[in-house]
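Thread: Newbie trying to understand structure tokens

Hi all, I'm a second-year student working on a class project, and my supervisor (Dr. K.) asked me to get a predicted structure for one chain before our next meeting. I've only ever worked with sequences, so writing a 3D structure as a token string is new to me. If someone could post the tokens and maybe explain what I'm looking at, I'd be very grateful. Here's the chain:
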Amino acid sequence: MSGNRIARSVNVSRSVVQNYVKLSGAVGLSYERACELSESEALRLIGKGQARRRSGAVVPDWGQVNKELLRKGVTLSILWEEYRAKNLSGYSYSNFCVEDREINHI
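---
Reply by user tm_fold:
Sure, no problem. This is what the structure looks like when written as tokens:
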């Protein structure tokens, strides 16, 4: 399936699809193997679901962020404030939202 077709089918940009294809290739994750994994396992394997350093900022645990967002009264803004309290040089709010959006639309 083409990158454009995948992007349309999951309602994300083609560049998001290309990014995940590139990340998957870098760790040797084939389509067949990805189908055998849960979403969180696949994300962890390609480095999107675990804390790591990126430009001096600790990457949030997006699986936990998404879990918290399911709770009543919890917003991305609240979660970002908690994240920044622990990571003073962490993502700006806008970058936090962009990264969360990319993770949620894989």
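A couple of things are worth pointing out once you decode it. DSSP finds seven helices and two strands in the chain. The chain has two domains: 1-48, 51-106. Feel free to ask follow-ups in this thread.
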